[in-house]
Amino acid sequence: MNQKNGAVKEIKEILSEIILLTNQIELEYPELYKFLEEQPMTIPAENNPKIDRDTLEDYMNGLRQLLEHYVEEHQLRRV
Q1: Which of 4, 6, 35, 36 has the greatest CB tally within 10 Å of its CB?
Q2: What residues contact residue 71 under an 8 Å CB cut-off, 6+ apart?
């Protein structure tokens, strides 16, 4: 597999993970889902933002952190 195909595969894997995380948030935490539209990653300040593997990976990691933090906070409140 050449380098370009590897990069495309990696981007597809990141996008798949973003979709899974987004679906999980939408289905399990609908109260959190509405805030995804307000995240800085979904509202670029630039007219033509660069979307590459690093940008997608940052967004994926941001979703993970948002979900983890939300779950932790709600578990603490239940105790």
Answers
A1: 36
A2: 29
Residues 6+ apart with CB under 8 A from 39: 62, 66
Average pLDDT over residues 1-19: 88
Token pair, residue 36, equals 């995804």
* CA gap 66, 79 in Å, rounded: 21
Average pLDDT over all residues of the chain: 84
The closest alpha carbon to 67, from 38, 26, 15, belongs to: 26
